[in-house]
From TrEMBL:
SMART domains registered for this protein in UniProt: EAL (SM00052)
Cited CDD domains: EAL
Protein name: EAL domain, c-di-GMP-specific phosphodiesterase class I (Or its enzymatically inactive variant)
Annotated transmembrane regions: none
Boundaries of every EAL domain copy: 56-305
Amino acid sequence: MLQVTPSIGVCTYPEHGVDLDTLMRKADLAMYKAKDLGRDRICFFDISMSREAEERVSLETALRQALRNKELAVHYQPRVCVATNRIVGAEGLLRWHHPTRGLVSAASFIEIAEEAGMIDEIGDWVAREAMLQQKQWAQAGHDIAISINLSPAQFRRGRISQRLHRILIETGASARSIRLEITESALLSDANETLKELNALRDLGFTLEIDDFGTGYSNLGYLQRYPVTALKIDRSFIADTKRWPIVQMIVQMGRLLNLTLVAEGIETKEQLRQIQKLQCHEYQGYLYSPAVAPETFECLLNGQQTIAPPPRTPASQLGILA
């Protein structure tokens, strides 16, 4: 059954304008606000929407300048083995050294990049930086995999496998040292075309992972269909102890499919103890380190210490399959 979720923007004459162009522009602003609020709703125009639109236009212009002025950077957050507490990988996260706002995370501007048609250029730049960085660290004796995020918009625009293949050739990087993180929403949008692209990426040698798992609508059938090797459990489940039974269910599902399980957002020792009990394989979070500049990450690699593995809890005591 087809489910329709309209987003409707409304403005009124003559309060919000007396000519058609003005009224249409303000109705559009109200419609986009309805989409931002979750779709399937009606939103009435108010003056704050004009201010928001002006801010977005200003940010879009600044972002285009940032690409030209080399204000973008990739920072890296460690992926850590739960058993040994050693760094086994890194997630490359986009940052913007804004001239007045300081260091800005991608969450603040990636949607604007998508809407403005800049996502391919930015995505290619991040992939190139990550591949070159992985080669540099490997040559220094730290041959760890780097993961990068692919947005749903990159899949909707198509040819992502061709773009990444070209960057592989340009950089001389090994695809097997690059992990690609895809959200559940990307998997479920135009599923057949997405599956074709994912298979092409796998055939190139990339490792595919589902990011923020649990926030979408994936089920066992979907996971079996796609060529993914890891699930990254969304930080919202880690932060809320009432949702830990969901974490346990995700772990059980992942173990059934022989997937690597990565817990995101680990900030306390108690959270680390819990994922040790559940036998997650890896974790990320501020408990070990936030995302840092490449030179700082290399210091982490050089200075890390191995700790004794925690006692292994039998799977039968966890209520999950071994």
